[in-house]
Amino acid sequence: MKKLKNIKSCLLLALLAAAAFTQYGCKKDASSASKGAPVITAIRNYVAHPGDSLLSSVGTGQWIVISGKNLKGALSINFDGVKGSFNDAWFSDTSAIVLIPAVIAFPSVPSDKLNTIQYITNHGQTTFSFPIVAPAPTISGISNEDANPGDSVKIKGFSFFFIKSVTYAGINVNNYKASNDGTSLSFVVPGSVTQTGGIVSVETKSGKASTVYPVHNFITGVLNNYDNINNFSWGSGTSNSSSDYPGNTGYYGVMQALNLSQYDYSWWNYGRSINTNAAQWVPQANLNDTVSHYALKFEISVSKPWSTGSFKILKDYSYTYTALYHPWKTATGAIAPFVTKGWQTVIIPLSNFVDDKGFPAPKLTDLLGSTGAGAINITFINDGANTVQNFEAAVDNIRIVRIK
Q1: Which of 126, 151, 158 is nearest to 62 (CA)?
Q2: For the whole model, what pTM was predicted?
Q3: pLDDT digits over 94-141, tens only?
Q4: Is there a contact between 226 and 238 (Cβ–Cβ < 8 Å)?
Q5: Which domains does the chain show, CATH number per domain?
Q6: Which of 77, 160, 323, 389 could form a disulfide with 313 if both were Cys (CB 3.0 to 4.6 A apart)?
Q7: Which residues contact 170 (CB under 8 A, 6 or more apart)?
Q8: For residues 94 and 72, what is the distance between their CA atoms, to the nearest angstrom?
Q9: E-assigned strands of 160-272?
């Protein structure tokens, strides 16, 4: 019996020793794989096979795969000195998936950082020379599409670097100022704009971007502008005062609400809505187009801080599909009281009109009906837990515009 116990004890010791040796070997292998500094050998496009291919240059906002060795343990991956986004848990020692920053201020990048990928790990770093080029520009919006001649306006977008030309309402603009990060161009509206307006375009060394819609246009797609196209029916007040809301173009609507208790949805009370007569939202010939290719737009001016309550937008008083507009609510859910410096353009894609389950209309005819025409109802409701003390906003140039 004693001999059997000794045999078992020896066997147990042998197993423990073998396990310890195996763990030591694994640790040694794991540590030895990450002892050396990272090495980059190639940059690949991050797309599904068979599109996976070697790249000769990259641009901003692009997903890529870095190939090499000793790539685990990444702390920072910088493109022209700007940190990219990544999750080291996705990495192996030979590949790393990274999102290049959407914004790189190319003109201000130090010369020693231009066209470099700096890879920093917890066991070393390397710098890889690789062409990082400014992509073609994109236009995301105009601060005020109906600004008056002499007013300041901004074109918003990305990659406004190395600019060759700018046009606004079809007119060449020479005296513009680009932001350092290439996300906006500021200038004064030319005095020669007309009421039919024209497109906006930005051309750089990398390409050209143009809007598909005209700016400074009071005709195309307009449902109501209180002036030459006046379909206003009832609800809000109207005014043409330039002292109350400077920068106006003729008449506009004024929506108001005082001491509105929480969860008060009675938008039909006087002054809290803009309701029009029937108008053509989308031409019948275009009702087979994609819903997201169109947007509701209007200009708004808010002088008193707005921090609770929403615009609920309907068609023909129907709740089948509705859209909400509450600019004081940030992407994180925090509250940032909203005011404007003069007038600015609001863009609400028609795909933002959703049913009670949060789904957009599959087709334009589901949203707009077979004729594509009807009234629009821009209503103010208090859908929050705080009282609306004193809300006021001016609204003008209500229109449906093709954006894609």
Answers
A1: 158
A2: 0.80
A3: 999 999 999 999 989 999 999 999 999 999 999 999 999 998 999 999
A4: yes
A5: 39-133 (2.60.40.10), 138-210 (2.60.40.10), 222-402 (2.60.120)
A6: 323
A7: 197, 198, 199, 214
A8: 8
A9: 163-168, 171-173, 177-178, 184-188, 201-204, 207-210, 222-224, 232-235, 237-239, 252-260
